[in-house]
Amino acid sequence: MSSKKKQSFLGGAAILASAVAAVKAIGFFYKIPLNNILNTEGKTYFDSAYQIYSVLLTISTAGLPLALSKLVSEAQARGRENEKRKLFSTAIWIFLILGLAGSAFMFFGTETIAGMLHNESAYFAIKALAPAVFCVCLLACMRGYTQGQGDMKPTAISQVLEALCKLGIGLPLAAYLLQAGEGLLYGQEHVAAGAIFGVTIGTVLSMLFLFGYLFFHRSPSETLDIPASRTILTARILIIGIPITLSNCAMSIISLVDTSIVLGRLQNGLGMTEAAASALKGQYGYAVDLMNLPPSFVFPVTMSLIPMAAAALARKDYRGTNRIVSSAFRLIAILALPCGVGLSVLSTPIMRLILPAHPEDAIAAGPHLKILGIACTFICIMNLTNAILQTYGKVHLPIITVILGGIVKIVMNYFLVGNPNINIHGAPVSTLCCYMTIAVLNLYFVRRYSPRPPRYLRLFFRPALATLLMGGAAWSVCGLAGRILEKGHSAYGANAIATLLGILAGVAVYGVLVVALRILRADDLKAIPHGEKLAGLLHLK
User: What pLDDT shows up at residue 527?
Assistant: First the structure.
């Protein structure tokens, strides 16, 4: 491999983090206008279809790409080029079969699936998304293969391409169907289907891009290694991938069951109509979208963690493995804590800022985000610790902790949402308790099974202190600015300016504290392009 492709852990994470930043920036211009196009009912139709897709997607792609990435990384570390190629040619057939089965199930079982969710109007959105399962399966295989070689660029480019298609195709199609719906031709169920169809087109184009990339970047290297049979290689992929799939799939299935319980309890327990229950669920869904934003930055860390740590373990470089894990913890602490607290302290102002077309729904979603902002911090920790446990071979533990957390979520939702004095407000509480349970259990197991147990107090104390001061600054500035501006501006304008000032104040305070408290280390930056200069500029050691 060329020196450019020999990306370090943080170098690979930086490339994927840049892609995620671009994807989220594009996603902002997709999801925020879309949430203003869809009303709360349409939002629930969209989310229901996407949750079905996520379950099938997780079953097909959650663990097997990571298993392929791990095995390819180990083969490359040993110089076994023939084994690496045979791993890919074996894996592609596994993903092809899974993709066909998943798409067929989603396409031909649409009516049954929508009925089980107590959301029959999601029929069209589910149908529109069905072909994407097949394409994403092949995408996942190719991404796992390139990531195992340390090349994160194809994944980054394909992710951006997917996001651009959602924006350029899904959003205009949803807007057109909404306008056409004014003549009673289409309803919110069709608008949601149009919006989600952009996801399907994006996966098709990204798949074609990766096919072309692999064709034109075939390695000419020749080695004398004799790889194992396809049966043995298939067994290796499945042995590693199935436990990881189960741990990830458990949460997706539990979330899907949870959605059915929430809508079912609102309808059957409290006597609401499907439309009324969908409206409340849609308000909650607006807040969930923002909760899921910070954890997306964890994925570049976890995707780079497994192949890079696996390669270090294959070389018996335990010190290098521990250094990678420690850097990952520091980065997550620095990113996750301020994001979660920021969303929580500015919850209602942020919702009012991004939902100008639905001001009443924005105010209703604010209390949900106040709780879910804290929950997103635990989601970040859960994702990272799952990857660490899987890297150290403890692949069954994340399955157990996720199931335990899911049980907490389902049981609490059943009783809280079914209580007429609580109803939908029980959903964010159960979500917080779910992810807190999983994160705490995972942190315990990581400490127990790591060769060098991480010092959690040392890793989290300074970022937590900086986060508390940041949250206080953001809340104070936003509140003060809002009171000053409310007389001279419209309600939306005053809130928008106050919210942005609060965010800027929080970012400024946190940035200063990260440097002043020396939360970052030079090693955390040196692997990033121009990181050594930045470390010197910040006087990091």
Answer: 47
